[in-house]
Amino acid sequence: SYQRDIYSSFRSPKFSTKPAEWEAQARKKVPAANFGYVYGAASSGRTHAFNTAAFDRYRLRPKMLVNATRRDLSVELFGTKYPSPILCAPVGVQNIMHKDAEEATARACRETQIPMILSSAATRTIEQIAEANGPGERWYQLYWPRPKFDDITASLLQRAKYNGYKVLVVTLDTFNLAWRPTDLDSSYLPFLFGDGCQVGFSDPVFNRIYDEQQAEDTRSAGEKIREALDVISRPGTPFGALKLLMKASTIKKSRSWLDVLNSGTYREWHHLELLKQHWSGPIVLKGIQTVEDAHKAIEYGMSGIIVSNHGGRQLDGAIASLDALAEITADEQVKKSGLTILFDSGIRTGSDILKALALGAKAVLIGRPYMYGLAIGGEEGVKHVLKCLLADTDNMLGNLGKTCLGDLSRHDLQIQGQAK
Ligand code: FNR
């Protein structure tokens, strides 16, 4: 059974069961700049620290003499039943952690029956991940191109829909990439723009727009590169120089794809109507942190929100995501609306997951921990991390004296400094 299978991972002699150890091993496994990109946070790193520290202020209140030997971790999200409340958060450029990148994650998700949310900044295409994920569950995360690229948005959504991605996640907190000192100091850009972010090349609309743009500007850098290529591809030119120039044109195109995704603050709430025209399934807004914005999500007919601060990677000094969740789920209008609320940022253990669910999240997303698993052992590493988190959650649910997630509520929590 699912409950038995998730416990198989701790017998692995290769991997630790400690989250801190996953991080330590990943640090040793990949180049410092790559690890830094995953581990790093915005500016002072305080919000990242707030995220994890917030879990210490909410503590679980266990009940005794309850028969909780048979437990059920299943949840229903947007009409689909999932065996657990865990999803893999959208994480871009996974090739910096392991050569199998998003494909390893897609296979691990299929094996553990955990939905994978594919990032717009992935290093594998929508189609490649659909194939690797096979009968698994998958959602698509959109970095929403600016209005002049609406055709690209439409094309991405159409491809996602055609390839079996069920839910559209629109990330709202990254229109303006944050000041991230670790990356600035390690100049991580080459691997993002180099072999990394080429998935845009697979989109026919992006390619058409890109080619048209190149043709229009005959003296553009792209033309110069082609001219230079002409020159150095003559007999006698070193092969290395040729490769270097080809790489330069790839980097240019990758950069152009990231430009499309990194759209600046060109979007307003009423633009969500456009997404609804191109996507008939559920739409979930990722990066909501306030009751005010949760109300807007309801007003604009969204199916759900992901309370998230991007793992502390965007607005430094922002409140802990768990505190934002507590505020939003306590709101009467939100409660009445039936809005589905998901949560991420800072989860490292099973008890963290139970706390978020007790506060009213229906399910949670895991970010960095599975990336560390990917670095340590590719597909096996991701599977190990996910199974550990599942088993830890299942075990803690029993220790709390509960048999299913629907039984969790705020009564299961004591908030420090606030006696019940
Ligand atoms: C992210 N995150 C992210 N989110 C998103 O919507 N699209 C993306 O492409 C990415 N890329 C990305 C890369 C890396 C390296 C990290 C660590 C994170 C944010 C991610 O989905 C999630 O919100 C956070 O990772 C959750 O916080 P924890 O679990 O990492 O603390």
From TrEMBL:
<feature type="binding site">
    <location>
        <position position="313"/>
    </location>
    <ligand>
        <name>glyoxylate</name>
    </ligand>
</feature>
<feature type="binding site">
    <location>
        <position position="141"/>
    </location>
    <ligand>
        <name>FMN</name>
    </ligand>
</feature>
<feature type="binding site">
    <location>
        <position position="286"/>
    </location>
    <ligand>
        <name>FMN</name>
    </ligand>
</feature>
<feature type="binding site">
    <location>
        <position position="119"/>
    </location>
    <ligand>
        <name>FMN</name>
    </ligand>
</feature>
<feature type="binding site">
    <location>
        <begin position="90"/>
        <end position="92"/>
    </location>
    <ligand>
        <name>FMN</name>
    </ligand>
</feature>
<feature type="binding site">
    <location>
        <position position="180"/>
    </location>
    <ligand>
        <name>glyoxylate</name>
    </ligand>
</feature>
<feature type="active site" description="Proton acceptor">
    <location>
        <position position="310"/>
    </location>
</feature>
<feature type="binding site">
    <location>
        <position position="37"/>
    </location>
    <ligand>
        <name>glyoxylate</name>
    </ligand>
</feature>
<dbReference type="InterPro" id="IPR008259">
    <property type="entry name" value="FMN_hydac_DH_AS"/>
</dbReference>
<keyword id="KW-0285">Flavoprotein</keyword>
<dbReference type="InterPro" id="IPR037396">
    <property type="entry name" value="FMN_HAD"/>
</dbReference>
<feature type="binding site">
    <location>
        <position position="171"/>
    </location>
    <ligand>
        <name>FMN</name>
    </ligand>
</feature>
<protein>
    <recommendedName>
        <fullName>(S)-2-hydroxy-acid oxidase</fullName>
        <ecNumber>1.1.3.15</ecNumber>
    </recommendedName>
</protein>
<feature type="binding site">
    <location>
        <begin position="367"/>
        <end position="368"/>
    </location>
    <ligand>
        <name>FMN</name>
    </ligand>
</feature>
<keyword id="KW-0288">FMN</keyword>
<feature type="domain" description="FMN hydroxy acid dehydrogenase">
    <location>
        <begin position="11"/>
        <end position="418"/>
    </location>
</feature>
<feature type="binding site">
    <location>
        <position position="310"/>
    </location>
    <ligand>
        <name>glyoxylate</name>
    </ligand>
</feature>
<keyword id="KW-0576">Peroxisome</keyword>
<dbReference type="InterPro" id="IPR013785">
    <property type="entry name" value="Aldolase_TIM"/>
</dbReference>
<feature type="binding site">
    <location>
        <position position="308"/>
    </location>
    <ligand>
        <name>FMN</name>
    </ligand>
</feature>
<dbReference type="Pfam" id="PF01070">
    <property type="entry name" value="FMN_dh"/>
</dbReference>
<dbReference type="InterPro" id="IPR000262">
    <property type="entry name" value="FMN-dep_DH"/>
</dbReference>
<feature type="binding site">
    <location>
        <position position="143"/>
    </location>
    <ligand>
        <name>glyoxylate</name>
    </ligand>
</feature>
<feature type="binding site">
    <location>
        <begin position="344"/>
        <end position="348"/>
    </location>
    <ligand>
        <name>FMN</name>
    </ligand>
</feature>
<dbReference type="GO" id="GO:0005777">
    <property type="term" value="C:peroxisome"/>
</dbReference>
<dbReference type="GO" id="GO:0010181">
    <property type="term" value="F:FMN binding"/>
</dbReference>
<keyword id="KW-0560">Oxidoreductase</keyword>
<dbReference type="InterPro" id="IPR037350">
    <property type="entry name" value="LMO_FMN"/>
</dbReference>
<comment type="similarity">
    <text>Belongs to the FMN-dependent alpha-hydroxy acid dehydrogenase family.</text>
</comment>
<dbReference type="GO" id="GO:0003973">
    <property type="term" value="F:(S)-2-hydroxy-acid oxidase activity"/>
</dbReference>
<dbReference type="InterPro" id="IPR012133">
    <property type="entry name" value="Alpha-hydoxy_acid_DH_FMN"/>
</dbReference>
